[in-house]
Amino acid sequence: MRNGLKKVFPIFVLPTLAAFTIAFAVPFIGGIVLSFTDFTTVTDAEWAGLSNYIKAFSNGDFLNALWFTVKFTVVCVLTVNIIAFTLASLLTKKLPGTNLFRTVFFMPNLIGGIVLGYIWQLIINGILSYFGVTITFAAKYGFWGLVALTSWQLIGYMMIIYIAGIQNIPSDLIDAAKVDGASSWDILRHVTIPMVMPSVTICLFLTVTDSFKLFDANLALTDGAPGKQTAMLALDIYKTFYARTGWQGVGQAKAVIFFILVAAISLIQLKLTRSREVEG
């Protein structure tokens, strides 16, 4: 039986491996190579060494986008996960209408970022009009507008993951904690949170990566205005690559830096939360 599986194993693996190589590995390696060149198309690339990376790190717009993205990600990770966990805790109790509320909270995740961006632009500008300003009047309005939009979109999805984690907690543990005189806060700290750490790991990973990679909603809501102060990394890379003649190599270098940052932060977060899973 095992010998038979070994014989047919390449038949099943090769198509997937070929698709991965063609669609991901080759373009990825090619992108890294292009980041060290000056080019307009892949056929006219000229070696430029580290000059593109030097231009990227000396570019004020890129550094501002990096700092803006970091602040935005930290705030979104906190708001999304705290609110999602709170809603999951409430909706796992035997309350009337919980299934309806789960559906309502999850629905924003099904709407595309561009559509959400324009919807929230209308909502926020409608509110700000009473104060004689718009969302692009100052960077702080764009920042909190993006936080509100992203939180509203992601909370429902993370809530579903937390609900699955909470429902998998053995009821015997909670009953035993109550018998021992544990308060609701004690049960939350010492039973619920340690038992849902796998869900926390997943939700933190998704929130961090989704927040860092935000593009379409940023494009639709503020387009980086005013003065590129609300441009996030993905939008800055897009504008560098497509809106500045002769800066394609710099845009590619920014994309490589972007990938390294997201990968490093995600791996660190996974390592930290998985260690908490083991302790839990």
Description of the molecule:
By secondary structure, the chain is mainly α. It has a single domain, classed as MetI-like (MetI-like fold, Orthogonal Bundle). Helix content is 76%, strand content 1%. The chain has twelve helices and two strands. It has helices at residues 2-34, 51-57, 60-91, 98-106, 113-128, 139-167, 171-179, 184-195, 197-212, 216-221, 233-243, 248-279, and strands spanning 37-38, 46-47. Strands 1-2 form a two-stranded antiparallel ribbon.
Could you list some keywords that capture this structure?
1% strand; mainly alpha; 280 residues; globular; MetI-like fold; 12 helices
Compact summary:
Helix content is 76%, strand content 1%. The protein has 280 residues and is an all-alpha fold. It is globular and about 75 Å long.
